[in-house]
Design goal:
This protein is mainly alpha-helical and 101 residues long. It has helices at residues 2-25, 91-100; strands spanning 64-65, 72-73. Strands 1-2 form a two-stranded antiparallel ribbon. The longest helix has 24 residues, at 2-25.
Length: 101
């Protein structure tokens, strides 16, 4: 029984040292370091990269910017939190409102 614990302990120490050596040498690529590992399209559920503007699988808009101030806004927001622009209005209506002000 003592021999089993000794062998198991030695194996665990070897495994930890091997992982640390691989990480420091640059040869270790853990999936959590991949930018697309946890990002998913809210529309179709496909795995995507976090910097994508649209989903390449279904075409859903993932990111957009406010047409007035240029700040990033969520596709499902109705108003820009930075400048209060109505994001549901068509782009031409937003331009005509800007000219009137």
């Amino acid at each position: 029984m003592m021999l089993l614990f000794l062998v198991l302990g030695a194996w665990l120490i070897w495994r930890v040292m091997e992982d640390n050596a691989a990480r420091t040498s640059g040869g270790y690529h853990h999936p959590r370091n991949w930018p697309w590992e946890n990002a998913r399209c809210q529309h179709c559920g496909a795995t995507i990269q976090e910097n994508f503007q649209i989903c390449p699988h279904c075409g859903q808009t993932l990111r957009r910017t406010c047409p007035k101030c240029g700040q990033p806004v969520s596709p499902d927001w109705r108003y820009c939190p930075s400048c209060s622009t109505d994001l549901s209005a068509p782009p031409n209506a937003q331009q005509s409102l800007a000219r009137k002000e």
